[in-house]
Amino acid sequence: MPAALDRIRVGSAPDSWGVWFPDDPRQVPWERFLDEVAEAGYDWIELGPYGYLPTDPARLTDEVTRRGLKVSAGTVFTGLHRGPAVWEPTWEHVSQVAALTQAMGARHLVVIPSFWRDDKTAEILEPPELTGEQWRHLTEGMERLGRQVRETYGLDIVVHPHADTHIDTEAHVTRFLDATDADLVSLCLDTGHYAYCGGDSVKLIETYGDRVGYLHLKQVDPEILADVVAHGVPFGPAVRRGVMCEPPSGVPELEPVLAAAQRLGVDLFAIVEQDMYPCEPDRPLPIAVRTRRFLRSCGA
To answer: Which of the listed residues 27, 65, 84, 294 has the most CB atoms within 10 Å of its CB?
Structure first.
């Protein structure tokens, strides 16, 4: 039997049901997501894109509680590298999500940097590399966000390196961590996105363990990824090709990642995400059931 991963709290998210947007006809209704995530054996969920689940705290509390679920985090997208001019609209959006996250008893806000390439159309929106000034805006903006979210809502931000954003590769992630205050900014390590961008999750945990505040569990298909990299395929079309795959068929191996996280000696959420937008409505549940079974076999 594997060693019990007693510091790891496993959950899932709307992403594993093909949900990327607050409202999209190709996504499963939110009631079905909640029913099926509970049926698959998960106790924790993320809110997903704001507006997908009910935003009235009393109603959402009722919906999740009667299914035996709890909320681990909310999610926001930010473009703080654009400088102080974007702070007010950013804070308006963050405040909406943070207020609901706080009301649901969660303690984390997952912060995803804005995409430099559109995730639906693959249109290039900005250069993939930031200037020095933009890096300064990004790091100072994230520190400000971390401070204000904590002071106002009692939440900790965890910044999510993500494909087709400016925080993606090992070089970008380490530059970001080295330039930000550890007390204000932690990392949401997404094992799939980090592998997609060439990173080693175990190495990152062992090197920057004190900065890892949250995990997303995900794997990539190495053969599809090789073709994606060779041909410069954008992230959205890569997902439609199946680049994010069902564990344990891809990389990185999740057992060593979970073991490294357990050795940190702190409680961590590990939220399963398998990017599948768009997908057939009957596809997610069987995958979710098998993935939960696999993670139990790892001790989680």
So the answer is: 27
